[in-house]
From TrEMBL:
<dbReference type="GO" id="GO:0003700">
    <property type="term" value="F:DNA-binding transcription factor activity"/>
</dbReference>
<keyword id="KW-0804">Transcription</keyword>
<dbReference type="InterPro" id="IPR050204">
    <property type="entry name" value="AraC_XylS_family_regulators"/>
</dbReference>
<dbReference type="InterPro" id="IPR018060">
    <property type="entry name" value="HTH_AraC"/>
</dbReference>
<feature type="domain" description="HTH araC/xylS-type">
    <location>
        <begin position="174"/>
        <end position="272"/>
    </location>
</feature>
<dbReference type="GO" id="GO:0043565">
    <property type="term" value="F:sequence-specific DNA binding"/>
</dbReference>
<dbReference type="InterPro" id="IPR009057">
    <property type="entry name" value="Homeodomain-like_sf"/>
</dbReference>
<dbReference type="Pfam" id="PF12833">
    <property type="entry name" value="HTH_18"/>
</dbReference>
<keyword id="KW-0238">DNA-binding</keyword>
<keyword id="KW-0805">Transcription regulation</keyword>
<protein>
    <submittedName>
        <fullName>AraC family transcriptional regulator</fullName>
    </submittedName>
</protein>
């Protein structure tokens, strides 16, 4: 399971160029009717109102990218902490995205798209009329619109709440951990872990997130770092061999992840234990 890569031409929400709404805790962006590539980490809960059909390849968190069409006059929801990468190749009218500093009360904790409903359709039509022209609405109008969108989204997510949150039993989680330990020196894919547990890939993603608070990718990386730390403490194995034994792509890859996740280099980790 390699480190995710980001194409050089991918950009964040700032590419859409709309300033903050002027209301505390709220920002919004609007896209035009042209293709775009978006790499976005949701620092706050985010709701997108889709004006027209958007054909994409979309990747959520650590999942593989997949074809996804965002239907006209629907909304999508992206919870705080989620990461999405969207390559939009066919865009008819674009979207507007609202970011909320205050968390949205909801049952869903995962990305959702193509959320419909009469109330949302009405608000999307209003937003299209006001935002697709040449002038910006005033901050008060945007505050009112965003509040109504918030209310409708809470209701929409509540209507879809009956989906039971996925669970991993203690035995199932230990089976997952054992598989990672037994294959720590090799490539571990999300599909491998799902096959080991006999569960759909989406269920494994959600169950690991619900149980540990971290993504499946992050769990595997942390276990690789744990194994590397143990070897650094207990052996004089060269760093390149430690990296290979723990499944890192290279010594540099291991060093980068140590610095990011543990706040030290492998050499410093080893020196601290001598």
């Amino acid at each position: 399971m390699g480190e995710p890569t980001i194409a050089e031409n991918w950009r964040g929400m700032e590419q859409f160029g709309v300033p903050p709404s002027g209301s505390p805790g709220l920002a919004y962006w609007r896209s035009g009717a042209k293709p775009y590539t978006l790499d976005y980490t949701a620092d706050s809960d985010t709701i997108c109102l889709v004006f027209g059909r958007i054909v994409t390849q979309t990747q959520y968190d650590d999942e593989p990218a997949r074809p996804l069409t965002f239907a006209p006059e629907t909304a999508s929801f992206h919870p705080r902490g989620s990461h999405l990468r969207v390559d939009a190749t066919n865009v008819t009218e674009g979207f507007v995205a609202f970011s909320y500093a205050q968390a949205i009360e909801r049952a869903a904790s995962h990305n959702r798209e193509n959320i419909g409903g009469e109330g949302l359709r009405h608000l999307i039509g209003y937003a299209r009329t006001r935002l697709m022209g040449g002038t910006h609405p005033d901050p008060w109008e945007m505050q009112c619109l965003s509040t109504l969108v918030h209310v409708e989204m809470v209701q929409a997510l509540s209507r879809t709440a009956p989906r039971r949150p996925p669970r991993l039993t203690d035995a199932g989680f230990e089976q997952l951990e054992a598989y990672i330990r037994d294959h720590i020196d090799s490539t571990i894919t999300c599909a491998d872990l799902a096959n080991e547990l006999g569960l759909p890939l989406r269920s494994v993603f959600d169950a690991v997130k619900a149980r540990t608070g971290q993504s499946l990718y992050r769990l595997v990386v942390e276990r690789r770092l744990d194994a590397a730390m143990q070897l650094l403490r207990e052996s004089d194995m060269p760093l390149c061999d430690v990296a290979a034994a723990c499944g890192f792509a290279s010594q540099q890859h291991m060093t980068t992840l140590f610095s990011q996740r543990r706040g030290m280099t492998p050499r410093h980790a080893r020196a601290g234990q001598k």
